[in-house]
């Protein structure tokens, strides 16, 4: 068991009170981390405020070089970082390696975007005036990150914030703080000035977040997590008119039309559902399959998921790890039992037998799911495929949109006209057309409706950390 320190204002800080980090695969304590309270969070804010102006005035190329150096160090330590992630979060080691690569891509992308923050000149309606648009950093920012992507959700926020010239305080999940602290050490080694980045974690998120929300000097909050918490933070942000960007819950439909490449659809269905054990906001939840191909698709997907090996992510050949904690298992079990009690048929999984330790739940498939079952309208966050059938395009679009969420949607068809119709009609921020893995650093990630506000990644991502200033310059003599 390793003991960690908090990273506050460029210093590594101990505290007598600690909390345990649990390996969800073995239920063993793998680390102890100082249990931060409001005092530590205030110190992080003060440090960020002290250096904000200096960091904002650093030339873009210098900020970019630090991001690139951090990316280089992360790449060199991929195995170490992936192992830490698997230990604290549970995902298989190969998948953890993939996330480290994904996390690195945000640092590399925003290192380039730092040098492309452009202003504008606007034609004036007066001969003796000129109009300019300038962009400046928002100021001190904070990131509240989840446990399911303990590296990528941090760099997706750190990257644009630092590139724009903002200081940042990261409050990672208390379930997975180790990746965040390791990333902090990498930025320290990369030459990031003291105070620009702090990582503060503790077991009372509401107490820590209160400091950030009440301090007027913290100008922006970026949060990834549940819709309910996002709503709470939005109310709190109103008191100081903070800028916010939220990536919240989802309930993604996965639609398969009869003209789809069935093998390709099955392959992507397995990816969209089982990545991260189904514990992702963009995980496919409702599988709408046209009745003409329902049986064939179901048989192929059942065969595909049955072949997946469940176990400790550090072991060879494991493709499905544990869920994050007992309450996650309990929710999945509740959704499965509710569906079965209301008439759904269990085709695969559904039983936790064979696992004496660890928070495991096997890949599970339910057929004959209907709209009144919890799994068809609540986010399951687990490895359960809920299959529903449909007959017409209009019908399935209506059903897919019939949710308060609007993060991601997937559909498979070879009809070009249908691709464009659905891209326009589906009420989601991310659309995967014949693609179950659309996330990438250069594309705007985010949702509509109750799935959030703002975008992360892409050229739009850095705009979330910039204020627009309008300069009207008068007194220009015209001869």
TrEMBL record:
Which species is the source of this protein?
Neobacillus cucumis
Recorded protein name is Succinate-semialdehyde dehydrogenase (NADP(+))
Q: Give the organism's phylogenetic lineage.
A: Bacteria, Bacillati, Bacillota, Bacilli, Bacillales
Concerning InterPro entries, the annotation shows:
Ald_DH/histidinol_DH, Ald_DH_C, Ald_DH_N, Aldehyde_DH_dom, Aldehyde_DH_Superfamily
Query: Which Pfam families does the annotation name?
Result: Aldedh
Molecular function GO labels: succinate-semialdehyde dehydrogenase (NAD+) activity
Query: Which CDD domains does the protein's record reference?
Result: ALDH_F5_SSADH_GabD
Taxonomically, the superkingdom here is Bacteria
Q: Which GO terms describe its biological process?
A: gamma-aminobutyric acid catabolic process
Q: Which family does it belong to?
A: Belongs to the aldehyde dehydrogenase family.
According to its UniProt record, this protein's enzyme class is oxidoreductase
Keywords assigned by UniProt, alphabetized: Oxidoreductase
Enzyme Commission numbers on file: 1.2.1.16
Domain Aldehyde dehydrogenase span(s) in chain numbering: 12-470
């Amino acid at each position: 068991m390793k003991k960690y320190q908090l990273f506050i204002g460029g210093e590594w800080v101990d505290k007598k009170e600690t909390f345990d980090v649990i390996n969800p695969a073995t239920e063993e304590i793998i680390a102890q981390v100082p249990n931060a309270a409001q005092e530590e969070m205030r110190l992080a804010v003060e440090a960020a405020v002290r250096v904000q102006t200096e960091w904002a005035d650093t030339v873009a190329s210098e900020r970019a070089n630090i991001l690139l150096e951090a990316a280089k160090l992360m790449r060199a330590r991929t195995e170490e970082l992936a192992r830490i992630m698997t230990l604290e979060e549970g995902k298989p080691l190969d998948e953890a390696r993939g996330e480290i690569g994904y996390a690195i891509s945000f640092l590399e992308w925003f290192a380039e975007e730092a040098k492309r923050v452009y202003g504008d000149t606007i034609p004036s309606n007066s001969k003796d005036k000129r109009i300019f648009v300038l962009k400046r950093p928002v100021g001190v920012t904070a990131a509240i990150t989840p446990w399911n992507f303990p590296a990528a959700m941090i760099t997706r926020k750190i990257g644009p914030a630092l590139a724009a010239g903002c200081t940042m305080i990261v409050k990672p999940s208390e379930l997975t703080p180790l990746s965040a602290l390791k990333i902090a050490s990498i930025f320290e080694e990369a030459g990031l000035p003291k105070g620009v980045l702090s990582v503060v974690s503790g077991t009372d998120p509401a107490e820590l977040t209160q400091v950030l929300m009440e301090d007027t000097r913290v100008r922006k909050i970026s949060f990834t997590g549940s819709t309910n918490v996002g709503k709470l933070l939005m109310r709190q942000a109103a008191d100081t008119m903070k800028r916010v960007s939220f990536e919240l819950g989802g309930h993604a439909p996965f639609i398969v039309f009869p003209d789809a490449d069935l093998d390709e659809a099955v392959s992507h269905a397995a990816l969209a559902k089982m990545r991260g054990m189904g514990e992702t906001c963009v995980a496919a939840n409702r599988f709408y399959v046209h009745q003409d191909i329902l049986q064939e698709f179901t048989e192929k997907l059942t065969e595909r998921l049955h072949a997946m090996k469940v176990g400790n992510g550090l072991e060879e050949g494991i493709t499905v790890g544990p869920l994050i904690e007992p309450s996650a298992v309990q929710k999945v079990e509740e959704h499965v039992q509710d569906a079965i009690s209301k008439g759904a048929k269990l085709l695969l999984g559904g039983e936790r037998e064979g696992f004496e330790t660890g928070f495991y739940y096997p890949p599970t498939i339910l057929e004959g799911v209907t709209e009144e079952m919890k799994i068809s309208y609540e986010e399951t966050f687990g490895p359960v495929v809920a299959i529903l059938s449909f007959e017409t395009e209009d019908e399935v679009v209506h059903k897919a949109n019939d949710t308060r969420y609007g993060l991601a949607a997937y559909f498979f068809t070879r009809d070009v006209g249908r691709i464009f119709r659905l891209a326009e009609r589906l009420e989601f921020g991310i659309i995967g057309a014949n693609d179950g893995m659309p996330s990438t650093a250069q594309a705007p990630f985010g949702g509509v409706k109750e799935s959030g506000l703002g975008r992360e990644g892409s050229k739009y991502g850095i705009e979330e950390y910039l204020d627009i200033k309008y300069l009207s310059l008068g007194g220009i003599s015209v001869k």
